[in-house]
Amino acid sequence: MDILQKMLERAKQNPQRIVLPEGDEPRTLEAANMLLRDKVAKLILIGPKDAIEQQARDKGYEYIKEATIFDPTTNPKMDEYANLLFELRKSKGMTIEEARKKSQDPLYLGCLMIKNGDADGELAGARGTTADTIRPAFQILKTKPGVKIVSGAFLMFTPAKQLGEDGFLIFADCAVNPCPTAEELAQIAISTAQTARVIAGIEPRVAMLSFSTKGSAKHELIDKVTEATRLAKEMEPDLMLDGELQADAALIEKVGASKAPGSSVAGKANVLVFPDLQAGNIGYKLVERFAGADAVGPILQGIAAPVNDLSRGCKVQDIVQMVIITANQAMGE
Description:
Elements: H1 2-13, E1 17-20, H2 26-37, E2 42-46, H3 49-59, E3 68-70, H4 78-89, H5 96-102, H6 106-115, E4 121-124, H7 130-141, E5 151-157, E6 168-172, H8 182-200, E7 205-209, H9 220-235, E8 240-245, H10 247-251, H11 253-259, E9 271-273, H12 277-290, E10 294-301, E11 307-309, H13 316-332
Helix pairs in contact: 1-13, 2-13, 4-5, 6-7, 8-9
């Protein structure tokens, strides 16, 4: 996993301010202690200060003292964040009273910290759903200029060294959008290419996947992928991107040369864009379970600042890795 090691070293060289809204969650606190010990990031833990400090003492987490612990029940800066939320949402009918109440929610508070310039990124989800994490980000941070859709990518570290980038590939969208339109699929492709550059430090070769290669079958589902391919090429003409391609044509050199001769991507893809969430989610889990791949993510793409989501079944090491990734995103923004 040389790519992860490079991301770790990059994070250490320029520690970012990462807010963890679930500051008193046990796995989160253990991961925070490790990250602070290794000087990977400057962490902001949201939660009850006394409870966090007591848990740290009980567990022997001596480095938690280096974190900023933000207790929304006592911190005087809460009025500033409530006023910021009110200004952002008053056109949607939010009152100042509602803003004060909503800003007490750690997930809203974390995004407000980023919006206010007090943090560089956020990681949450050990306790809540993806929707819980994304909703405040949509309302407060919004999407990047020119991007209308948030998507989720997985870094896939596989033992098949002949594929992708020495066995490394990026899969999207595997987490957020059930049935993207052609325009949305094109934006997912562009966002994932940016993730490949910023996070992994590789030049993306993007395959737009389908059950057809270059017109080998006819169906409206294929039409969506071919239109998304056309739109993505218009958005970023210099990007190495091709479609529609079947998975084997995208990944296997001989198959790619046979089914899509002359393609700059076929047989050499390191970024796979799936046509919908069913295919993406099933695909990454099959590769993870059958091929023994390590799947790291999902990395949320398209938000104006880095906000990432965890699985509620995450392990401590998953949190550590995702903080490293979030820090790298922050440096690349």
